[in-house]
Amino acid sequence: METQIRKVGVLTSGGDAPGMNAAVRAVVRACIFYDMEVYGIYKGYDGLINDHIEQLNVRSVSNILSRGGTFLLSARSDEFRTEEGRKKAYKNFRKKGLDALVVIGGDGSFTGADIFSREFDMPVIGIPGTIDNDLAGTDLTIGFDTACNTAREAIDKIRDTASSHERLFFVEVMGRDAGFIAVNSAIGGGAVAMIVPEHNWTLESLVKRLRKGAANQKASNVVIIAEGCHLGSAYDIAEQVKQELDYYDIRVSVLGHMQRGGSPTTIDRVLASRLGVAAIEGLINGESKCMVGMINNKIVYTPIGEAIKTEKPLDEEEFRIAKILSI
Ligand code: ATP
Q: For each of the chain's 327 residues, which pLDDT tens digit applies?
């Protein structure tokens, strides 16, 4: 296959996500498979600015498939938000003789990639690596499935103690401004309700749902709160519910950063592997300024600006199911 691209740089940026290592491995091995050189850029955009860039080989990515986090390290780079910072980054990009950049990260990282590639007009391709699943142009982002499994596993354990003491638990999960982790872990964990940023649930409707559960002799209750939800934190909501339902013994658990860690699930490893290879094959075939994703099990390239700006809706069918099952 003919290609103009001989040297590819790859970085991981923003919040880490399980499966980022699998994506880097796929990028590295696909480059080498297609006779291209590949360079690891350490600590996200900071590595480009500070010239922390090293050539990788097939063995550089041995034994990382099953590891959470990212061996390339990640960072939130304030300097890259400035024109001066991006100029430095481009200087190092040219100095290393790189022809294209692969960015593994979330919407912030892609916003940076979009600006950078338009300023200096070079091929950039994004791979969606974020536990939040908040990117259009792909059904799933890398890390989302693992994060949901981690949250659901924690909810299962919380339920054991909730039922032993007939308690009401408010469990806060991650997801930034999106409710994808909340919805999935709520259905998977059998929660009585979930409060997500995308829906205007009121405190009254939550209290009504909980009253109904109590009337139906529900022995334990778990309510999932998405971190970005409009009613406040799990602690705020628990406090307000306590004023209304004094017969409940209420507890709060904020799952926090545990949701970012751990060995990626098979779904995340396969997704990361497919997207990593597709990113390189896309670059070879002239794709640029786009994000590679998977929709209905097919590889899709979406303009990066569209992937960032398009709102990804929650699946209403999942709400309907959750409502039926929480009686
Ligand atoms: P996650 O949502 O999983 O945390 P993310 O990629 O959205 O991942 P951010 O912290 O939002 O994480 O962004 C990562 C980095 O992308 C920032 O630290 C910054 O270096 C770069 N970036 C974000 N927005 C911009 C922007 N407007 N201009 C230039 N760079 C940006």
A: 445 899 999 999 999 999 999 999 999 999 999 999 999 999 999 999 999 999 999 999 999 999 999 999 999 999 999 999 999 999 999 999 999 999 999 999 999 999 999 999 999 999 999 999 999 999 999 999 999 999 999 999 999 988 888 889 999 999 999 999 999 999 999 999 999 999 988 999 999 989 887 777 776 789 999 999 999 999 999 999 999 988 788 999 999 999 999 999 999 999 999 999 999 999 999 999 999 999 999 999 999 999 999 999 999 899 889 888 887
CATH of the domain at 105: 3.40.50.450
DSSP 263: P
Separation of CA 216 from chain center: 37
If asked whether residues 136 and 278 sit together in one domain, one would say yes
151 lies in the same domain as 93: no
Name the pairing type of β-strands 298-303 and 290-295: antiparallel
Count the domains in the chain.
Answer: 2
CA of 34 to the centre of ligand 1 (A): 30
Nearest CA to ligand 1 atom 25: 112
Residues with CB under 6 A from ligand 1: 13-15, 45, 76-77, 80-81, 105-109, 111-112, 115, 130, 132, 176
Q: Give me the domain span that covers residue 98.
A: 7-143+264-309
* CA neighbor of 182 nearest in space, from 228, 122, 242: 228
- One domain, residues 46 and 99: yes
**Nearest CA, atom 17, ligand 1:** 76
Distances (CA, A) of 13 to 24, 111, 191: 12, 11, 33
